[in-house]
Recover the amino acids of this structure.
């Protein structure tokens, strides 16, 4: 981490000129939600209540009605593209980890395997909600760490319908439609950048120095990092990472560098003469460095949004728990699998050309283990 | 809208923290001739004529696919004339609009007239340019690539459109360098629709973020209709400068004049002095102002403000008006016959 600290400075970016006015912003989004979610009566009642107290004048709220009504993913557009996503209506599942909705999943075989985003599966039990609302239990049968994939095995006697991935790469500017559970469109966006590799940007959140003996010690702990939350303190010596001994800061950095954001490092620490074991999460550098204003404009993002062999970048507005589902082109081909909500302008999908070999490898691994 | 917007929007250029016509427009004839090289205009299939003129949702999936094909063509051409603009520690975007190398950008990216800018094209070429005029009231800025760098071929450039007849619901395509220039990635395309049309800004759901400022917004015929300026918190709150402002004020922009200020972004130092004396002596420092925070004192005489030699109080006023809130400026003062350098972070007039 020591070697990287100068790198962090050089690449640190901030907005030029940031504005106050949180309150007004909060009100505006309130208003907007009221108008986009009219299908939820209790909620809009609540929001109407809120709105009465809002300082936003009537003409401004009317302005928002016009604005939301002509968005590219408004209800008319959703209706138009629905026949496309309906082709996946039996293949998209919702994944629950310890009772919380964490992602979508895509069924890839008739014997009940589904792909999803691995870093969101933080806790057992894993359950999945099928297209017909049935909730079935599932387990992680295989893991593809390099691209944040988990292969789930769904238990139960169910008529599983797999999607068919298509390795077509749509040109930049193409429409891309994301499917939700039951095959309803959850987002309409466009192809922004052709597939490319994204190096991972995981950090433990410590700045290291080396003592006269050459052993690495913690000089500084970043606030709100995995190291901070685990209780690592300045002057701690890191003796081992995941059971493997380390000595110099270079060896620490090298071992930590093999862990992806969202993964956990088991650290053996020497503090004032005694050894202790600690588990510290590796987190995204971009999120660790995010200012309050950055996080407001970015909205919520995935825990892991870097470290992929190939991703195509699109601008569909997804929630972090809407990753793991299929991404379709206008011809209804499943051209990828949404893998991360990376920021205000960026969602990433693994292209089918990467998914197909990964899927075959993970299925083989899982079926061999189950035999 | 004005009163509310003021406090809502953030400009979207990036600052690196490590350091301090034959225009088609109806309103003017001042835009430069686009010249010999081809622009970004893409011929429009007849099925899209209504969508171009009125906006709205395609009637069928077939029509949506025709729109998509059109977007693919525009995206390809848009990338070629979208450039990264770096001036000192700040980075934004621009769009080349003539084969002679005029670049439209945001005023807050160009910062001040006569600054040197490093321009990166999407084909990897890196050239130098000089900032021209700034019409700050709408955040419009102009840059020109220094002559003799195109090998005689002319620059790839956008075809200019007209922002006078835009309507909510029309489709548009944005390009730019979100998060800063990334050579392995290049410019990023986004597709959206116009959500609001006002005299001084367009609102779209083409999502923008820091680094996109100054980048181009095209209509589905491939004509440049606006330039990216700033964002609100909501992902559908993206503001662009309508293209006709550049046309109407072309002469002043090309001459290198800077004038006006963007509502909510008026720079403020917080000192007062005497306009008629021959020196910029500070008579009062407002408590809690940026000048106060930086350590200005009554009786200080300002000699230099950033790059600008200060001769009297009005030249100081002009120099401050050429900055942006949040900018850090080096100031040289005389205090008790000693020379002193302090750094002040420019504030915002409430």
């Amino acid at each position: 981490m020591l070697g990287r600290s100068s790198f962090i400075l050089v690449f640190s970016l901030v907005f030029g000129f940031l504005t106050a006015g949180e309150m007004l912003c909060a009100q505006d989004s309130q208003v907007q939600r009221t108008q986009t979610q009219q299908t939820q009566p209790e909620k809009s009642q609540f929001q109407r209540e809120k709105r009465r107290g809002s300082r936003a004048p009537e003409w401004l709220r009317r302005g928002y009605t016009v604005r939301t009504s002509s968005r590219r993913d408004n209800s008319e557009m959703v209706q138009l593209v629905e026949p496309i996503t309906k082709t996946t209506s039996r293949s998209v599942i919702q994944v629950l980890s310890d009772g919380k909705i964490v992602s979508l999943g895509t069924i890839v075989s008739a014997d009940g395997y589904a792909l999803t985003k691995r870093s969101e599966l933080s806790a057992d039990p894993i359950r999945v909600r099928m297209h017909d609302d049935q909730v079935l239990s599932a387990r992680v049968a295989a893991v593809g760490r390099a691209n944040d994939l988990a292969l789930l095995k769904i238990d139960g006697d169910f008529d599983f319908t797999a999607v068919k991935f298509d390795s077509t790469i749509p040109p930049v500017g193409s429409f891309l439609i994301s499917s939700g559970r039951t095959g309803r469109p959850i987002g309409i966006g466009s192809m922004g950048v052709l597939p490319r590799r994204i190096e991972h940007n995981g950090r433990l959140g410590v700045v290291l120095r080396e003592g006269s003996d050459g052993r690495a010690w913690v000089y500084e702990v970043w606030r709100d990092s995995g190291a901070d939350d685990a209780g690592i303190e300045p002057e701690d010596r890191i003796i081992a990472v995941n059971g493997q001994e380390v000595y110099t800061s270079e060896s620490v950095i090298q071992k930590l560098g093999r862990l992806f954001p969202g993964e956990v490092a088991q650290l053996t620490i020497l503090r004032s003469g005694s050894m202790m074991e600690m588990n510290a999460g590796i987190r995204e550098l971009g999120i660790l460095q995010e200012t309050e204003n950055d996080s407001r404009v970015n909205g919520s993002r995935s825990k892991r949004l870097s470290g992929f062999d190939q991703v195509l970048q699109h601008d569909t507005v997804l929630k972090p728990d809407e990753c793991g589902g299929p991404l379709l082109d206008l011809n209804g081909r499943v051209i990828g699998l949404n893998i991360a909500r990376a920021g205000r302008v960026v969602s990433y999908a693994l292209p089918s050309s990467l998914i197909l070999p990964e899927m075959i490898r993970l299925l083989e691994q899982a079926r061999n283990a189950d035999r | 809208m004005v009163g509310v917007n003021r406090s809502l929007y953030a400009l979207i250029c990036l600052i690196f923290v490590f350091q301090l016509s034959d225009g088609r427009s109806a309103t003017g004839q001042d835009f430069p001739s686009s010249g010999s090289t081809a622009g970004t205009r893409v011929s429009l299939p007849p099925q899209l004529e209504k969508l171009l003129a009125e906006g709205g949702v395609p009637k069928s999936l077939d029509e949506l696919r025709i729109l998509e094909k059109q977007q693919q063509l525009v995206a390809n051409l848009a990338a070629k004339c979208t450039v990264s603009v770096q001036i000192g520690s700040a980075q934004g975007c621009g769009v080349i609009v003539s084969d002679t190398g005029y670049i439209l950008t945001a005023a807050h990216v160009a910062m001040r007239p006569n600054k040197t800018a490093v321009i990166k094209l999407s084909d990897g070429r890196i050239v130098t340019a000089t900032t021209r005029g700034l019409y700050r009231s709408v955040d419009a800025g102009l840059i020109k690539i220094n002559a003799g760098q195109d090998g005689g071929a002319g620059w790839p450039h956008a075809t200019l459109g007209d922002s006078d007849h835009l309507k909510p619901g029309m489709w548009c395509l944005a390009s730019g360098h979100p998060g800063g220039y990334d050579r392995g990635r290049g410019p990023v395309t986004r597709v959206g629709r116009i959500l609001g049309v006002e005299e001084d800004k367009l609102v779209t759901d083409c999502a923008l973020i820091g680094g996109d400022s100054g980048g181009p917004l095209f209509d589905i015929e491939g004509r440049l209709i606006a330039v990216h300026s700033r964002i609100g918190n909501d992902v559908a709150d993206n503001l662009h400068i309508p293209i006709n402002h550049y046309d109407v004020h072309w002469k002043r922009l090309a001459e290198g004049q800077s004038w006006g200020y963007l509502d909510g972004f008026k720079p403020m130092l917080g000192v007062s002095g005497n306009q008629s004396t021959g020196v910029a002596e500070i008579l009062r420092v407002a408590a809690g102002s940026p000048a106060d925070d930086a350590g200005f004192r009554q009786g200080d005489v300002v000699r230099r403000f950033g790059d600008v030699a200060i001769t009297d109080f009005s030249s100081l006023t002009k120099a401050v008006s050429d900055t942006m809130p949040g900018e850090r400026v080096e100031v040289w003062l005389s205090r008790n016959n000693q020379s002193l350098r302090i750094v002040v972070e420019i504030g915002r007039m409430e």
About this structure: The CA atoms of residues 264 and 281 of chain A lie 4 Å apart. Chain A touches chain B through 58 residues (CB under 8 Å).
